[in-house]
Design a protein that fits this description.
heterodimer; A: 201 residues; B: mainly alpha; 10 helices; 0% strand; globular; disordered N terminus
Chain lengths: 201, 200
C-alpha cells in the first residue's frame, strides 16, 4: 500500500483533483478515510458560518466614512474659508444680496412699527411671493441685526418685484437662513451689513 | 444643519448633483470617477460595500475592525483607481484590495474577535434542525475559531473557502507556493476541528 496522504493531497482529494494513486490509497486506508471525513466535516461547518448582518444604518455610514476619509484627497477637496462657497450656498446668498441692494435705497420709505421696530408693511396682492418670507422672517436664524433687517426688508418686497429680480424660484429665505452653518450665517451677516452701511447715492 | 464643511466636495455631489444612474457599469463609473465625479465613486462604494465588508469581517471577526478595513479598502481603491485597467472586473479588483488590506491587518495584530469561550459554549444539546439560535451560536464559534488561527492558515482558509479563489490565486495573494497554500488549508481545518471538537 502507498504511504498515507500528506496535507496537500487531502486537499486535492477534497477538490477532486487528486492523483489516482492518492484516491486509491484512501479507498484502502481507514486512517486516511477517518482524517478525510473529519476534514470534510470541518470544512462544511466552516463554509456555513455566515458573516453576521450589521445594522442597516451601517451601510450608509460606510459611504459617509469613505467620503469623510477622502475629503482631503479629492481633486475638489478644497478646505478653508472658501469651502462653504458652494452652489447651494452661493445662490441664496446672491439672492439675498440682490434684495438688499434693491431695497436699501428704499428703506427710508418703509413705515415701521415703533413698538417692535419691525416693518409694518406687509406685501399683498395677487401673485405675491413675499408672504412666504414673512412666515419665518420674525425669527431670523442668527439673531444678527443685519440678518434680521434683511429679512424685514425682504418682507416688504412686493410680489411683482420678486419676479422682476428672478427670485420667485428661490426657496423661503428664512428657511435658507436657518439652514446655514454659523460660519455661513456670519459671512452673510457681514455681507448684508456692508450693503446696508453703503452710502446711498 | 448642513453637513460638515470638510465633506463639502462630496456633500455637493450627494445633495445637489443627480445620482449616478444605476444602469452604468462599474467600469463606466470608474471612468467617471477618474474624470472627477465623486458621486460615481460613491455609487461604486454602494454597490460593493457589502462584499468588501464580508471579506474584512472574515479576517478580523469583529464589526469595528471590519468597518475600519472596509473604509480603508475604498480609500485605497479611490487612490489607485487610475491603475484599474478593466482587465478584471471591478468587483475582483476591489476584492483583492480588501484581501490585501485585511492581510496587512492580520499580520499586524491579533484580531479582537467575538468573545467566545469554547469550553463553556460547546453545544451539548440535541441538535435542533432549523433552530436559528443554535445555528447562530455554532456559526459564532466557527468564526471565532477561524479568527484565532495563525495568520497564514487563516488567510488560506478564508480565501479558499469563502471567496472561492483558486490555490494559485491564493498563493499569489499570500505570497507563497500552491503546495504551501494547500498545506495551510489542511492544517487550518485540522486546528478548527481541535478547537470546535464535539460542537461540529
Amino acid at each position: 500500500m502507498t504511504p498515507c496522504l500528506g496535507p496537500d493531497q487531502f486537499i486535492d482529494v477534497l477538490d477532486g483533483s487528486a492523483e489516482d494513486t492518492a484516491a486509491a490509497h484512501v479507498a484502502e486506508c481507514a486512517v486516511c478515510q477517518a482524517t478525510l471525513a473529519e476534514v470534510r466535516l470541518t470544512l462544511a461547518a466552516a463554509a456555513e458560518a455566515e458573516v453576521p448582518e450589521p445594522s442597516p444604518l451601517f451601510w450608509s455610514q460606510v459611504n459617509a466614512r469613505v467620503r469623510g476619509a477622502l475629503g482631503g484627497t479629492t481633486q475638489h477637496g478644497a478646505t478653508g474659508w472658501w469651502a462653504w462657497l458652494r452652489f447651494d450656498v452661493i445662490v441664496p446668498l446672491a439672492g439675498m444680496a440682490l434684495i438688499v441692494a434693491a431695497l436699501t435705497s428704499a428703506v427710508g420709505r418703509v413705515p415701521t412699527d415703533r413698538s417692535t421696530g419691525r416693518s409694518a408693511a406687509r406685501p399683498g396682492g395677487e401673485g405675491a411671493k413675499a408672504p412666504v418670507v414673512t412666515a419665518t422672517a420674525g425669527e431670523p436664524a442668527s439673531g444678527d441685526g443685519a440678518l434680521e433687517l434683511m429679512l424685514d426688508l425682504a418682507a416688504t418686497l412686493p410680489g411683482s418685484e420678486w419676479d422682476t429680480f428672478g427670485l420667485a424660484a428661490l426657496p423661503d429665505l428664512g428657511v435658507v437662513a436657518q439652514s446655514l452653518s454659523p460660519d455661513e450665517q456670519h459671512a452673510l451677516a457681514v455681507l448684508l451689513q456692508a450693503a446696508v452701511d453703503r452710502p446711498q447715492s | 444643519m448642513r453637513p460638515n464643511a470638510t465633506t463639502a466636495p462630496w456633500s455637493l455631489a450627494a445633495s445637489s448633483a443627480p445620482a449616478m444612474p444605476t444602469t452604468m457599469t462599474d467600469e463606466a463609473l470608474v471612468e467617471a470617477s477618474l474624470a472627477g465625479a465623486t458621486d460615481a465613486f460613491d455609487e461604486l462604494v454602494t454597490r460593493h460595500r457589502r462584499a468588501v465588508y464580508c471579506v474584512c469581517y472574515r479576517f478580523v471577526n469583529n464589526h469595528e475592525d471590519a468597518a475600519d478595513l472596509t473604509q480603508d479598502t475604498f480609500v485605497r481603491a479611490w487612490k489607485a483607481r487610475a491603475t484599474f485597467r478593466g482587465q478584471a472586473r471591478f468587483s475582483t479588483w476591489v476584492h483583492r484590495i480588501a484581501v490585501n488590506v485585511s492581510l496587512n491587518q492580520v499580520s499586524l495584530k491579533t484580531p479582537r474577535g467575538e468573545a467566545v469561550d469554547f469550553d463553556t459554549m460547546a453545544d451539548t444539546r440535541e441538535p435542533a434542525p432549523g433552530h436559528s439560535l443554535v445555528v447562530a451560536e455554532r456559526q459564532a464559534m466557527v468564526r471565532a475559531a477561524v479568527a484565532a488561527l495563525p495568520p497564514r492558515q487563516r488567510a488560506a482558509l478564508i480565501l479558499r473557502t469563502y471567496h472561492e479563489l483558486s490555490h494559485q490565486e491564493v498563493a499569489a495573494l499570500v505570497g507563497t507556493s500552491v503546495g504551501a497554500v494547500k498545506a495551510n488549508v489542511f492544517h487550518a481545518l485540522a486546528n478548527l476541528r481541535k478547537r470546535l471538537g464535539p460542537s461540529l
